[in-house]
Design brief:
Elements: H1 2-20, E1 34-37, E2 42-46, E3 52-66, E4 77-93, E5 97-104, E6 117-124, E7 130-136, H2 143-146, E8 174-182, E9 186-198, E10 204-219, E11 222-234, E12 258-259, E13 287-301, E14 304-317, E15 325-337, E16 345-346, E17 351-352, E18 364-378, E19 393-405, E20 410-422, E21 432-443
Antiparallel strand pairs: 1-2, 2-3, 3-4, 3-21, 4-5, 4-12, 5-6, 6-7, 7-8, 8-9, 9-10, 10-11, 11-13, 13-14, 14-15, 15-18, 16-17, 18-19, 19-20, 20-21
Signal peptide: 1-24
Pfam family, one: Porin_O_P
Protein name: Porin
Length: 444
């Protein structure tokens, strides 16, 4: 019954926010003045900035078609799904407290037990320039993850992140983060979280994340960004799914929010799982610590932007019966806005943001190319199988894409991805594949 009422409220609120965009203006009342903004969602705030309330959201509808390595039999499959369907509620309380709640109706965030929340957090900003955030949120790791899913250049983020998908995912746990802009040229953050997986005594797995970015140039269209990242978690005596299973840019091989490729989708296991033929995916004595280091680089001048990231992971074995699992990945990307606009950059969060179209009739057009490379070294794999040979399993991806920012609310994207693999293939023997995916996004 509660779920039914919540769904009804959410639908009504969503309708209100969308309808509100048809109006514009300012409303002033007696006593504390109130300003109502209706450009992009619904925002109500007091003029003294002590209180505010904003209702918005994002809807991302995707269609993908793929073949070869992306399917188990190599034949073409397709998928239609909502990648994200967020209702977002945020604002200010008593000037120094901020709150944000994002609920995902596509069920790609969270789960049925803990709720499908992408974020549910409270922040305190009274110790300027320090921000303290508490609750459920994605930990800070990497430039592309820091950039909102609304404004990332590629439809899916780089495949190096998939080598360690826990590093910047809340996994339905809770955490605390301290972040700050330093000397108007750097951004620092550190967080500790207790995740929703337990050791044998019932203690939640603890995770530490740290990120440091130096950005002496951080104006829109004039950016130089260099950063380092670290994430560590303790897995001793913990039962968890240790498989490394990248989707390689084709979310439709396995996703929620609609129809995917079903049993023919090939989300291959590159490593982990304590030997791929053992079936023992949740051994409690296989691994001890899990450590990931990362590096970030970005440069932007006018409509041109370059960015790259590197990731190195080591899942340390807990006894001599097992071997460490190591993984490395990187990507390099070049993007250019044909209509001349620059990507917005924000030092607070050390991230890129949207492209704001200057031409209201034709919008802004962006093209990009990205190269991804990943490698997984798992010496627990001691025998060849039909789909996985011993040695390092590798993949490289070439992605070309175009983004049309029709206006500040609507974005249309199309990506083509070519994947090639080594020492890993599908059940049909394919070690390459093609993926085309398109997205229509509406943000309010």
């Amino acid at each position: 019954m509660i779920r039914k009422h919540f769904a009804g409220f959410a639908a009504s609120a969503l309708a209100l926010a969308v309808t509100a965009q048809a109006f514009a203006g300012t409303v002033t009342t007696d006593g504390a003045d109130i300003v109502v903004k209706t450009k992009g969602g619904l925002e109500i705030a007091t003029t003294d900035q002590n209180f505010s309330f904003k209702l918005g959201g994002r809807l991302q509808a995707d269609y993908g078609t793929f073949d070869g390595f992306y399917t188990k039999n190599g034949d073409s499959a397709d998928a239609t799904y909502f990648r994200r369907a967020y209702l977002e509620l945020g604002g200010t309380l008593y000037k120094d407290f901020k709150y944000q709640v994002n609920y995902d109706f596509s069920h790609n965030s969270g789960n049925s037990d803990d709720g499908y929340f992408d974020e549910a957090s409270m922040s305190y900003v009274g110790f300027k320039p320090v921000t303290i955030r508490v609750g459920r949120f994605d930990a800070d790791f990497g430039l592309e993850k820091a950039t909102s899913s609304k404004w990332v250049t590629g439809i899916e983020r780089n495949s190096a992140y998939e080598l360690a998908d826990w590093i910047n995912s809340h996994e339905n746990g809770m955490g605390i983060q301290v972040s700050s802009v330093v000397a108007d040229m750097a951004y620092l953050s550190a967080s500790v979280a207790s995740k929703d997986i337990n050791d044998k005594d019932g203690k939640g797995v603890k995770q530490f994340n740290g990120r440091a970015v130096f950005a002496p140039m951080h104006e829109t269209g004039n950016v130089l960004h260099v950063g380092l990242d670290v994430a560590v978690r303790d897995l001793k005596d913990t039962a968890f799914d240790s498989r490394i299973r990248p989707r390689l840019g084709a979310r439709g091989v396995s996703t929620s929010g609609g129809n995917d490729a079903g049993t023919n989708g090939n989300r291959a296991t590159f490593g982990g799982g304590v030997g791929l033929d053992s079936g023992n995916l949740t051994s409690t004595d296989a691994y001890d610590t899990d450590t990931v280091f990362g590096g970030e680089f970005a440069f932007a001048t006018g409509p041109l932007s370059l960015q790259a990231e590197y990731l190195n992971r080591k899942m340390k074995a807990d006894s001599s019966a097992y071997q460490d699992v190591k993984a490395t990945g990187f990507y390099g990307q070049v993007a250019y806005t044909l209509t001349g606009e620059a990507r917005v950059y924000k030092l607070d969060g050390a991230k890129f943001d949207t492209i704001k179209p200057e031409n209201k009739q034709y919008g802004a057009w962006e093209v990009f190319y990205r190269y991804d490379n990943i490698s997984v070294d798992d010496k627990n794999v001691v025998r060849n199988s039909a789909t996985r040979e011993t040695g390092d399993a590798k993949a490289n991806l070439n992605t070309i894409g175009v983004n049309w920012y029709a206006n500040e609310s609507v974005k249309v994207s199309a990506n083509y991805v070519k994947v090639s693999t080594d020492r890993i293939k599908n059940a049909n023997g394919d070690d390459s594949g093609d993926n085309f995916v398109a997205r229509v996004q509406y943000v309010f």
